[in-house]
């Protein structure tokens, strides 16, 4: 029996539909598509069906977090796996089919993770296994993939690298998260300090940008802009270098000095600048554009791109590639016809003969760019957001079939008798080209910076002009922009390091994380309260900053991840090096834990009684109920305040104005009430009911 195992149900359905169009008779069953006449079955996973065991699954005593039990390491690095509770039926069904298989066709997603996801299901298979690489679910792509099946053993190293990646992340996450969380609890923090090789540098990106933003001091300054008159208007000159004058009279004096002076042309250059479309969408760039233009989060963009893929409207979404194989150009005009039929674009896209620049075999990875497939049957089923994202994708694709955006640029250098140097630049529209897709009414060219070609400055070397006037322009320095979710995705994909060798690796790996995981990393940092939103921007929380203050630089920067990617790439070719990489990872973890200087102290809330210590959240359990309170960490004070919804609720006694209202329990009724803490010192007998206390 021939068994196809896909990563997702949508891929299984696409295969069944394709085979049925070509004479097969696959029928849906609860767990597969079955064609008994062909002895063929198509079944599917639903993402990973197995997970690496948690520490308490190795030893129940490890459920309790204790520094004394760290580091936690499976014996001989033999990581055990368990089937997810909600996926046991699917796992059992696939395993039964594998037992009866004579040939298995591995149809995991065409990447490292997709390879491992199916490989871990077929470890016990005793039959021939072929690998099918699908980048899209249209018929042409399926046919091409079927014609190029490979022996699955050729991908053994790729699968091993993915397995090792998960085991390394387990060692780092399980150990360092416990370690730093316990250290944080000692210092009064309650946040789970999640640590990972991608999370740490991502958190650090946000924190460094926020620090630069906060430290920025706005400085006001002035610049001068001399003007000369020519046949069609005025030409603005910019001094070289462009001196920034302090506020005062200096700029005015320089402007007065230059007015009516002569300037002579040293160089004159006029050329047409052509900007064709050279790249299409990868997942990263699609997420950035959706966040910027549609206010859709990276996580939601991925979900929408996945939905478009499953509806066969677009190609595989988890792609880090911005190019297409040249072989796909043959299908381009058919796809353009389909796009024109949707009426989603305001202009008709023409057929072309020449191959556009994004078709580039030398830049194709395991995937290709995210593009429309030409199938438009499901257009009417799209939600507004899905239609908006789909429109962005077809616009990007269609733009490469339109003329380049072209403008005429004139660059001129001048000097005066004092040998001051000036430069001037003008631009004039030649062809709006593909920009009509995004701006059909050409509103952008109404800007005074873009002239008509007939009014552009024409000059010759040696020509002399008089400075008619000099404008003094007031400006101020701007702080760096805080990250949004979209721009953080971009920063993760282009992160850099000072280490030249590692920078090359980071560039080859296309940053930290993968297109499929970057949005999840950001979401988890938000959920873990290590970063938070400031309107649409992202900033670190006090807990996030506290964690960064004790993390080693190697983990905060991209270096560690780059080194890991380098060694994982080596594993693809030399899987026997796996254990050494795990041993080195464990050594790195132990070195971090041996640093006795690591400590955190939550200084968010100053104790209002002693004004020296800080309030730290504490909790205890009694009769299976958890009680919380805040306690001053100054041992000579140790003042305790009630915790309401996780926050310190500080109420100064309205009677004596010296004590603070603290919780008490009526021994007879068990009811909570609040009494002044100064009772023993001054005899203040002020009490409040809980209802009254909560009003303050």
Structure description:
- The chain has 696 residues and is an alpha+beta fold.
- Helix content is 34%, strand content 21%.
- It has 21 helices and 26 strands.
- Helix 9 (283-294) packs across helix 10 (298-310), helix 9 (283-294) packs antiparallel against helix 13 and helix 10 packs across helix 12.
- The N and C termini lie far apart (73 Å).
Short description:
With about 700 residues, this protein is of the alpha+beta class.
Which structural traits does this protein have?
alpha+beta, eight-stranded mixed beta sheet, 696 residues, single chain, 21 helices, seven-stranded mixed beta sheet
Number-wise, the strands total: 26
Report the structural category: alpha+beta
Overall geometric form: flat
Q: Level of helix content?
A: 25-40%
The first-to-last residue Cα distance is 73 Å
Q: Main beta sheet: strand number and arrangement?
A: 8 strands, mixed
- The mean pLDDT is 91
Q: Round the Cα radius of gyration to an integer and report it.
A: 33 Å
Contiguous runs where pLDDT drops below 50 for at least 5 residues: none
> How many distinct helices?
21
| Percentage beta strand | 15-25%
């Amino acid at each position: 029996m021939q068994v196809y195992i896909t990563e997702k149900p949508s891929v299984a359905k696409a295969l069944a539909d394709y085979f049925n169009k070509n004479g097969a008779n696959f029928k849906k069953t609860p767990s597969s598509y079955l064609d008994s006449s062909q002895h063929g079955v198509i079944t599917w996973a639903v993402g990973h069906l197995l997970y690496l065991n948690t520490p308490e699954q190795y030893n129940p005593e490890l459920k309790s977090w204790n520094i004394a039990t760290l580091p936690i390491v499976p014996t001989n690095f033999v990581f055990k796996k368990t089937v997810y509770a909600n996926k046991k039926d699917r796992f059992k069904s696939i395993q039964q089919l594998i037992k009866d298989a004579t040939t298995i066709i591995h149809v995991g997603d065409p990447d490292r993770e997709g390879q491992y996801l199916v490989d871990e299901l077929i470890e016990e298979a005793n039959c021939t296994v072929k690998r099918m690489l699908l980048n899209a679910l249209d018929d042409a792509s399926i046919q091409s993939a079927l014609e190029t099946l490979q022996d699955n053993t050729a991908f053994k190293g790729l699968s091993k690298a993915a397995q090792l990646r998960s085991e390394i992340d387990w060692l780092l996450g399980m150990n360092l998260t416990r370690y730093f969380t316990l250290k944080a609890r000692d210092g009064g923090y309650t946040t789970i300090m999640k640590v990972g090789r991608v999370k740490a540098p991502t958190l650090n990106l946000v924190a460094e940008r926020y620090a630069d933003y906060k430290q920025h001091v706005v400085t006001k300054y002035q610049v001068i802009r001399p003007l000369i008159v020519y046949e069609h208007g005025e030409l603005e000159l910019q001094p070289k270098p462009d001196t920034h004058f302090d506020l005062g009279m200096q700029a005015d004096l320089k402007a007065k000095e230059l007015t009516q002076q002569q300037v002579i042309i040293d160089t004159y250059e006029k050329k047409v600048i052509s900007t064709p479309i050279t790249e299409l969408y990868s997942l990263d760039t699609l997420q950035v554009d959706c966040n910027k233009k549609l206010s859709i989060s990276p996580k939601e963009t991925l979900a929408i791109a996945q939905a478009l893929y499953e509806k066969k409207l677009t190609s595989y979404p988890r792609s880090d590639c911005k190019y297409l194989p040249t072989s796909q150009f043959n299908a381009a005009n058919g796809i353009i016809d389909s796009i024109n039929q949707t009426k989603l674009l305001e202009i008709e896209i023409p057929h072309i003969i020449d191959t556009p620049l994004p078709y580039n075999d030398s830049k194709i990875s395991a995937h290709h760019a995210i593009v429309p497939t030409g199938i438009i049957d499901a257009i009417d089923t799209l939600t507004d957001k899905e239609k908006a994202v789909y429109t962005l994708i077809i616009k990007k694709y269609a733009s490469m079939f339109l003329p380049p955006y072209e403008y005429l640029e004139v660059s001129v250098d001048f000097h005066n008798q004092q040998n001051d140097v000036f430069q001037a630049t003008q631009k004039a529209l030649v062809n709006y080209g593909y920009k009509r897709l995004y701006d059909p009414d050409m509103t952008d060219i109404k800007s005074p910076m873009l002239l008509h070609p007939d009014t552009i400055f024409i000059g010759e070397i040696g020509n002399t002009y008089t400075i008619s006037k000099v404008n003094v322009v007031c400006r101020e320095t701007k702080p760096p922009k805080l990250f949004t979710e979209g721009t953080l995705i971009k920063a993760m994909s282009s992160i850099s390091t000072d280490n030249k060798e590692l920078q090359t690796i980071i560039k080859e790996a296309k940053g930290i994380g993968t297109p499929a995981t970057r949005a999840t990393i950001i979401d988890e940092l938000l959920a873990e309260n290590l970063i938070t939103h400031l309107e649409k921007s992202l900033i670190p929380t006090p807990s996030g900053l506290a964690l960064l203050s004790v993390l080693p630089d190697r983990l905060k920067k991209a270096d560690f991840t780059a080194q890991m990617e380098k060694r994982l790439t080596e594993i693809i070719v030399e899987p026997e090096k796996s254990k050494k990489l795990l041993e080195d990872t464990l050594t790195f973890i132990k070195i971090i834990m041996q640093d006795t200087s690591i400590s955190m102290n939550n200084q968010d809330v100053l104790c209002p009684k002693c004004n020296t210590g800080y309030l730290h959240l504490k909790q205890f359990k009694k009769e299976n109920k958890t009680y919380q309170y805040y306690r001053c960490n100054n041992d000579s004070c140790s003042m305790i305040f009630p915790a309401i919804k996780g926050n310190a609720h500080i109420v100064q006694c309205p009677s004596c104005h010296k004590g603070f209202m603290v919780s008490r329990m009526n021994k007879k009724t068990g009811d909570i009430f609040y009494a002044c803490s100064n009772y023993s010192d001054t005899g203040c007998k002020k009490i409040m009911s809980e209802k009254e206390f909560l009003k303050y």
